[in-house]
Amino acid sequence: MAAGKKTGVKEKTPEGAPSPPGYRAIPIKFSQDQASSHFLYIKEHRVRGGAKSSWPPDRTLFVLNVPPYCSEECLARLFAACGPVQSVRLHEKPDLSETPKESSVFFCPKPVPGFHVAYVVFRKPASLPKAVALQGPLIISAESHPVKTGIEKWIADYADSLVDPEALRLEVDKFMEEYDKKTAAEDAKAEAEEGVPDEEGWVKVTRKGRRPGLPRSEAASLRVLEKEKRKKARKELLNFYAWQHRETKMEHLAQLRKKFEEDKQRIALMRAQRKFRPY
Asked: What pLDDT does residue 10 have?
């Protein structure tokens, strides 16, 4: 084989862990007493030419194979030796969004079970090469910073799930204030574009150009509710069972026979009185 030719064989670290091409394996241990090591696969976060990313490419470390017991705080502490960490985000799979997603303490998705991928953002670009060249093994749980497990972890998770009403109110008020500003800006833009032709002479029709609807009164709301109830009643399944269908047919036939007999008696009576006029 020619020298310098790339092959598909994975690299191996001094500890013997296979590394995917382009990644470097760093051994970690849950505690100092653990004999075997788990491996994180890290590399500098990069995107293809021309593509946008919500993570700064010169300060972001991409981490694979993050175990479930390794939280964002643990990763921030492990890589803090390379420089100050700005943020750490865990995801179920690589994040390909072009705009950063706002994180909320209260309105956040459920934690992803199992292994994760992580984005570690440093404050300074000089910290990234140090993180890529970091040696292990790294200890997650130590005496100075123990990681809670078992019932202690369950108690801590329950305590964290309790919501502070005042903090929740402040976050909701902030969100609604930003939403009102965004809505007002969109309405102002639509009003400015109303009736104004573009370069080709086309006029854009916006919501502001339509006739605004009148507010619904209480009586109108009640009428709508009654209409919905009647519509729902019509949609109910009648004669769903076979025995109900048979009984309905039998009742209908009995009513027809009864009406036939009544008509025969009435015609016989009219004939007896000579008042029968068929035309």
From this structure: 47
Q: Which two tokens stand for residue 4?
A: 């310098």
Q: For residue 243, report the phi and psi dihedrals to the nearest 5 degrees.
A: -65, -35
Cα-based angle 220, 223, 228 (whole degrees, multiple of 5): 130
- The residue ranking higher by pLDDT, 183 or 142, is 183
> What is the Cα–Cα distance from 244 to 250, expressed in whole angstroms?
10
Taken in order 159, 165, 167, 173, is the CA torsion positive or negative? Answer: positive
Q: How far is CA 105 from the centre of its chain?
A: 15
pLDDT value of residue 181: 92
Q: pTM for the complete prediction?
A: 0.53
Q: Would you place residue 8 in the very low, low, confident or very high pLDDT band (cuts 50, 70, 90)? A: very low
What is the model's pLDDT at position 110? 64
In angstroms, the first-to-last Cα distance of the chain is 112
**DSSP class per residue in 190-227:** HHHHTT-B-TTS-B---GGGSPPPPPP-HHHHHHHHHH
Q: Are strands 138-139 and 116-122 parallel, antiparallel or unpaired?
A: unpaired
β-pair type (38-44, 24-29): antiparallel
